[in-house]
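Let us practice reading a record.
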Amino acid sequence: MKVESLLDISVDYVARCADNLGGLGDLPPHIKCKVMRSMTCHGTLTDSNISQVLHPGLKALDIRNCRLTDTALQNICSRHLSWICLSNSTEITSTGLQALASSCPHLRWVNLSGCTSVTDPGIQALAQSCAGLEVIALLRCTALTDGAFQALGANCRMLHTVSFSETQITDTGVIGLATGVCASRLKEIHMSGCTNLTDEAVIFILSNCPNIETFQFHGCPLMTDRAWEALQNYTGKQKFKHVTWTIY
């Protein structure tokens, strides 16, 4: 039987009662990190208290379980932050992402899946301010258009993994990615359930991204045998590790 340490018990108590306690801002950074992780698990991290547990040396932030708005993102200021998960934060908009991108230019891993209020300007701000971006997840970001993906292709040279399944992207957006500065680095693309994509999207990716290893485009109703033929003729440097598709 595991016995919790006094520190763990104290952190859990602080996390549960954060709104009724003062002095959180005086905690040392390593304790703030523990408190923040516990607060996110309990869902007690809010717009009003997040500034109390943030610190300049913050490197990773997972706030997927918290109901936060743009106000919370406007309080985040860490040039060391490289990893953030905001999935299913439906109240976060491009206004918050623009502030985040400006204050945290070294982001490399960003998960915005299910952030249905995020529009193109937010992704464009990330692409322009965070040129070292390597992984971005935009699953079910239904308010995005091709402009967001064209900005990623034009600015993010280090991008190797991108997920945009169940979005409104068209072939134009995919072509922007597949012919952009990240083309030779792209290894993983998830674009399943995209009802506007046609065979051209698959053909452009396979023709311009020689290092693709994971490629998913099942559930795209406009795909035909041409997409399958493009897979059969693929001559990239790497063998596929995982491929799923649907031909209609």
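A brief commentary: The CA atoms of residues 66 and 143 lie 21 Å apart.
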